[in-house]
Amino acid sequence: MDRARLSPMSKILYVVPGVGLDKQELLRRKSILNSFATSPNAVEVEAVEQGPESIECFYDEYISIPNTMKLVAKAEREGYSAVIIGCFGDPGIEAAREIASIPIVGPGETSLLFASILGHRFSILTVLKNVFPTLERIAEGLGVIKRIASMKEVGMRVLDLAYDVEKTKRRLLEIGREAVEEDDADALVLGCMSEAFLRLDKELERELNVPVVNPVAASVKMAEALISM
User: Fold this and answer.
1) Percent of the chain clearing pLDDT 90 (strictly above)
2) Which residues of 51-72 are buried (b: 16+ CB within 10 A; e: fewer)?
């Protein structure tokens, strides 16, 4: 495959490292991922067969990695041009890059890099305080830890975010406003893929008047950029 440019043959695999999503939700997420892709149907979605329901702490992250690596290796064998690790915590991304020669994209890494370009200081709006250490680790690795104005929690488990979207939206607006008005954040990041797939970022931007990085869009565009280069 010619990786010097993005072509209709370029395929991206979005690997879901948990088992908590049903087939209908996986198809919905595939549709959203492809809405950001340059080529129609460029992104395929596959979930691990065994793993945690969701990833909300280091333990969840670690038990998700072995089966995630199996899908990464499979993706390269099957001719995919890039892989997106479908969790904001980027579980196992270093190992994935060791075993594969194709680009491996982490939504967490990518979103924090974009946020550091969009704003002087940014805040991350995530699910629970449990994941703060993971986000700090990603930021430290990228060298952008000093750019974080704050990290805010919605206070809801990952799998509960979609049960009451209006409640989730109200909470994101509340903590987003705190970040902007009290912490001087001039950009925001949705720090969970299940938050991002609710597609509330544009509404948050209109209400709060700051850029909001959606890691779904960011990771697809980063994968395409890496493939084209």
Assistant:
1) 93
2) bbebbbeeebbebbbebbbebb
